[in-house]
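By way of example, we now present a protein record of this kind:
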Amino acid sequence: MWKGMTRLLMVLWAHNIRISTHVQHCCGAMTHSAKSCMERPRKKGAKWTNFHIAPDEKIEMFELDYDGKRDRWNGFDAATYARVIERYEARDEARRKYLKEQQLKKLEEKNNKQNGEGEVSDDDEDNDALKVDEAKVDESKQMDFAKVEKRVRTTGGGSTGTVRNLRIREDTAKYLLNLDVNSAYYDPKTRSMREDPLPDADPNEKFYGGDNQYRVSGQALEFKKLNIHAWEAFEKGQDIHMQAAPSQAELLYKNFKVIKDKLKSQIKDAIMEKYGNAATEEVLPKELLLGQSEKQVEYDRAGRVVKGMETSLPKSKYEEDVYINNHTSVWGSWWKDHQWGYKCCKQTIRNSYCTGAAGIEAAEEAADLMKTNVARKVASEEMPAPTEEKRLATWGTDIPDDLVLDQNKLDDALKKEDKRRKEEKDERKRKYNVKWDDEVTLEEMEAYRMKKIHNDDPMKDFLH
């Protein structure tokens, strides 16, 4: 009995220690500390009052692998988001029903007014009219064949969105218009074909002319200009962003176009006010059109003015008839030996001082003196004596005048030279004991010269 009481006291004592160590706050839960408690602090904690003790939180432990720790959708329940989708779909359905009821009410009022004016109204006719009007309301859904409801990013339910088809079943696909391998490139990922698949076809009969045709025409070009204006305005310090605030960007672009057109018109008016407008419909006076005046001028057959005032000739913007450095003619009035000069002194230096006739005479005398000196030098030079050409042999010695070669010995030497060359080519025919003869005759030397191949000879490949 004492053992049981002692054990009970020990359990209670351990339990009190646990409560005192873990429950340091007022809510009473034992799964978190007082620092991480999210409840409002009480005047007296649950440890002392034992009232309104908060339940312990359920702590779940997950042992995740490498991919599980890095999965950004780990622990996501798709069913919770599916309820959000259902709520939005119910709201859209209620909105459609409400709009349809409003349209039907308007059509009923319209039919009642028409019946009141004609003073003829039957229930059958009203029902038929309502059916016809209801069919008219549904025409928008029937004509919307180019749209298809498709799940976009459906991760366990996902969201619905309207995706437009690129073509209908009756249309030919882009990549089937031209089956040539070298034709326009088709990107299957983006379903785009930028170039024209049939560039030589009749444009009136074309169904598709490439994606670039639509990118540079219509609203696409205007949208491109809008983007460029937004980028340029942002670079200049204006707080504008096409994707963040498209309405603001479009409004600023419209204001920019209005201001630009206004500025253009102001500049145009200022120019027209200053210089006039030749394209106006104002009739010019006859004096300007026909060039008539009260002054009478008479001309002869050669075109010279006989009586009256001669018209002034147009002048150049450059200075004319300006003489410098005592010259009496302008630069470029004289030409000789591909050089320009002055006619008055015949000098070819632009900044030279004019010397007149004396300078011309001095230049002629200097030229004559130079010609005389050249002729005297040529006459005084002695012609070099002609050198006698020595006939040299191929072995580097002079050929004596009484040299006579024996033709028989020369033939034997040629045969001996051919034999020696064959032995050099074939190592198997070379003898072991070779006897060398240091004495070389003139015929053998001539045979060696005749059989020797010169690298510069163009016919060396045809000798053997």
Notes: The first helix runs from residue 2 to 22. The chain has a mean pLDDT of 77. The CA atoms of residues 152 and 159 lie 6 Å apart. The first strand starts at residue 147 and ends at 152.
